[in-house]
Amino acid sequence: MGAGAAASARAWLRRWQWDEVNIHTGIMLDWDDVQAVATRLAPVPDGSNHGLDGMEGLLGAYREQGATHLSMPELTLNRLLQAGRLSLTQGPAPDRVYMRARDAALADLVTAELQARLPHLQPSRSRAKHPLISFKGDLPTVAEVGLGFDPAQADLARRAGLGPVARPVGYSWVQPAMIDRTLNQAAVLDLDRAKGDITGLRYGEITDHDSDIAGDGEIVTGAGVDSEAAVCAGNSPGNGQGDCGRDASRT
What domains sit in the chain, N to C, each tagged with a CATH number? Predict the structure, then answer.
């Protein structure tokens, strides 16, 4: 009995020591939710809204109230079209999709991602003030594909004193190379907070279904990531896979 109690005590001590070093709790804001609040928060003539009529001011206010992180959704053509940053238009080739970009920087980002992830669709862009992006294929199929993250969003989060946490999207025909590219981009954007945020992610949580394209399906990366709305924690010695809610990050 004494030996069993000693072994249990040692296991409990190891778990306690791991928790003390590795578990971090924070309050994570969702980019879409904050953007919705910023849109609804119209300027008040008497100034009683304290100048919070914008994303950066609103994020700063949330930071003062205890927020620690901002969840950044992965870009997709669907998201960009819905936000009005891209617009569909007509072009000369009937077998190509044409989209007008709001600015050259966005056109460069989208075109580069399409060329890297889907080169067989022959993506290209014009050099106009509002560039024209085009590719071959079916728009609904391509529009759901994740295209990485917007560096401007990460910069905005850091200016407000928040840690940016990448939120990859799930889509039906994800490939290992696409996942690797997304996770590498997330690592670059969140490099300075790699040890304080989420460090565990499974392919199935990105693709919304089980996948065994990487052996046991598990990826470990230095970036903070969550899948769609859920934030997933890293491995722990107690249960092999921790978990946490959407509004807090643990590792």
Answer: 21-74+148-231 (no CATH), 77-143 (3.90.1070)
